[in-house]
Structures are given as structure tokens and as C-alpha cells.
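Two quick folds needed for the group meeting slides. Do the first one here.
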Amino acid sequence: MKYTRITALAALGVAAGLTLTACGADNSGKPSSSSKGSSSSSSSRGDAKPQGSSDATSGSQADNAEPAATKDTRAGGAVSSGTQAGGKVTFCKTKDLAVDAVDAAPDETTGRINITMVNRGSTTCSATGFAGVDIKDADHTSNPIERGPAQPRVTTLKPGDAAIFDLAYTIDKTGESLSSPTDILVTPPNETHTVSLKWPAGAGDIKGAYTDVQVYPTHTTR
């Protein structure tokens, strides 16, 4: 009986040892191939964006971008503001215009300076709109001239044609005018380059200040 009991206990001990060994294998982890697979899966989830997703985003941005021609047009203003109907006539360039100023007062109280621009270029151009005008005074100040209450007229110039616009003011006959104009600075419509003209000799004195002078839009001489 004692031998049998010892044998039984030994058998139970062997069985328990086998059980513990089995449990130890399960708790120690999976085979090495499973470990690599788990690490790879974790790395994939850690990517910020799949490569395909990044390409799709770039493509969407490209689709939403404006065409280069549209940007160039807006930047240069050639089509949006410098072309007349039909898209064929561009604004006249200062370098292609011969500009002159003369006294054209119709009477002793109304001052008027006519400024003429002749197209010396080889192509038809547009001089439609208001020219920019500043008057320089003997004290070396430059005074911008306000626009008069008039609507621009279409002014298209073939080579040799002339456009005209005028400066209007009231003549001071008291001899006490505070203005002493020496030069007229003219920037043709839709241009940035300026020409300097002498104030016409014999033109009447300006009554008031330079803010009382007005510039009117261009028109053709025909």
C-alpha cells in the first residue's frame, strides 16, 4: 500500500511537471515567425499616410489650381484691362505717343489746356480713359489733378491718329494767384510711364488751388 501510494504520488508529480511545462510554453510567447508578423503589422499602422493617399492629395491640389494663363492675364492686365472688344487692340504705350500741351482757353475766364497724344507706333492702339496728370509748381511740389465729371469715350488710334484731353480751370484775373505751374506730368491711360510737358506760355493763372483743376477723358480729334 505504501509502495502504491508513493508510485501514485510520483505519477501525479510527473503529470504536474508536464502540465507546468506546457503552460510555460504558452506563456512564453508564440514562435518567432508570429512575433515578426506582429511587429510588421504594428509598423504598418504607425505610417502617417499610405503612399497612394499622398499621391491622391497632390492630384487634387493640382486639379484645383488655376491655369497659368489666367494668373498671367491677371498679373499683367493685358487682357482684362488693356484690350478692347475682340481682344485685338491693346492700350497705347507711352513710348509710342508724341505728347504735346497747348493753351486752348475759349475766353478770358475759362482756362483750358489741351493735351494731344499722337500714335507714332506701327499698330492700332487704344487711348480710352483718363490720363494721370500732376502739375509741378515753381516750389518743386507735385500736385495730382482730380478727374472731371465725364464718362470716358472709346478712343482707338490708328498709326498717325491723335487723341486729345483737356485740363479745365477758372482763370484768376486778380493777379494774386498762389499757383505758379511749371510742368505738366502726363501718364497715358492704363500706362505707368510718364512724360513731362512745359506749362504752356500765355496760359491764364489758376484761380484757387490745384485742387480746382480737373482733367477730362480722352477723345479723338475727328
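Then this one, please, same format:
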Amino acid sequence: MNAFAALDPHELLQRVAAQVPPALRGNVVVIGSIAAAWAFRDVSGAHSVATKDIDLLLRPAVDAVATAQMLGQELLEEGWQPQFTQGRAPGDASTPDDELPALRLSPPSREDGWFVELLAESPQGQATRKHWRRFETPLGAFGLASFRYMRVAVHGADESAFGLRVARPACMALAHLLEHAEPDRTPISSLDGNPPRFVKDVGRAISLWWLARQQSPLAAERWRDEWRDTLAVLYANEAVAIRAAARAGLNSVDGYLREAHAIAMLGLLAPHGTTLDAYRRAYEGLAEALHRL
């Protein structure tokens, strides 16, 4: 499997925040591995994270395209370099929205091998798993992707000392579980064996739970409080169905724990030496917490 560079979340948040214009910082939430590493920076071994991408979610959804255009132009003018996969290039007026590349930008000094990727908060009522919106840059057109439960992932995001908000692990985990109540079986070609997407994403929710339990014996109570607040705000009339969907999402990985653990040991859990047995216990603990939600 591929190994990623070990990066310091404090340094990365500081560097990224310095490049985001102050007027736009309130519209940006850091999600993903860097957000997790920041949240668990006091856990032994969590001072770095194995990753290569920093996901920046732009919100609110109604302003996401305008924010992407302004931020993309700002970074390009500062010398950030676009990164493309599979020979893709910026689109033009004839390129369908869902065939546009995402905007991934590496800093001018690219020795660390990381990049930022722009994503969008999902608009109210998004039913499709993934939705693309077009935005323009001096290089051409790019696509801004939103996943349907991104609003869950960034609910109640914490303020950082650098002016950017950082998503909370409990909400990111809940978003992953909800996304895969109907498992996404799209193969991940960048990982050995081409595992389906749901194995990585649901496995990440388990990893976040394992780290939370390492951080505090009160993690279960805190997570349930955050989940309940999120459901009360975002799904006041659908709480029962959403709870069932979260449990179904976690159940989807039953039978794939060995594969999910192997992926986790390349990323969030890479510094921790978490055994498969410990990972399985985390899965069981997360299931119990959801049952009590």
C-alpha cells in the first residue's frame, strides 16, 4: 500500500491560514486527516499525521462557488501549483460539470509533497451522494464537489488560533457513517487491492473513535452530546431515521474490519501501532455508543 508523508498539523494549519484572505477565513473549515490530527494533538503519538491532502470545505453552500473562485485565484497568484491526476486538465465551456477536475494546489515550495483541495458544503436537500458545481479560475474551469452529509461533518466546527475553523471528530465520524448507510462500493484505485470506498470511510470513523477514547474516558458522553446537538439542529424531524442510517453505515464494514484496519494504519492510526484486536474493540464501542444515541 502507499505510504504518505508525516505532516505536522499545527504547522500546516498556520501555513494554510496565512494564505487565506482574512475576509474568507470565516467561510473555510478544515476537515479530514489534518482536522483529526489537530483535535487529537494531545494524544501520545498524534503530533503528526500521515497524509498528503488538506481538505478545505467552503461554506455556506450558497456562497461556495464565489469563495472557491476568490480563494483559487488568490493561491494561484501566490505561486501555488495545480495538481492533476490521470492526465486531466482544467475544463472549458464544453466540459460537463461532473467531468471537471477538482482544484488541488501545492504550495510554491513543494518539497513536503502536500496539497490543498477545495470542497463545498452540501446544499440543503442534496440527495445525490456527490454533486459538482463549476467555478472559473485564470487556468480554466474546475469542479467543486459536495458530499451530501458535509453539513454534518462541519457542524459546530471549532475555532483555531489561526482563524480557520476545524471540524470536530464526532461530527466527521457521523458524516462518514451516514454516507454509507448505502455503502459506496466504488473501488479506490490508489490503495492496494482496490478496496471499496465505504471500507476506508467507515473505517476512518472507527479510527476517530479509537483516538477519542485514547484522549479522554469521557469521549463517549461527549460524542453523544455532539451527535444529539447536530441531529437537533440539522435533522429535527428525521432524527429516528438518521440514527438508523448511522447504525447501518457502521454495520456495513462488519466483515471488512481487517481491510479497514490496514487502511487506517496507513493514515490516522499510523503513529499509534493500533492492533487489529484494539481496532475491533473500537468498532464494538462505537456500535454501543450509537445504540445509546
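Slide caption for protein two: The longest strand covers residues 130-137.
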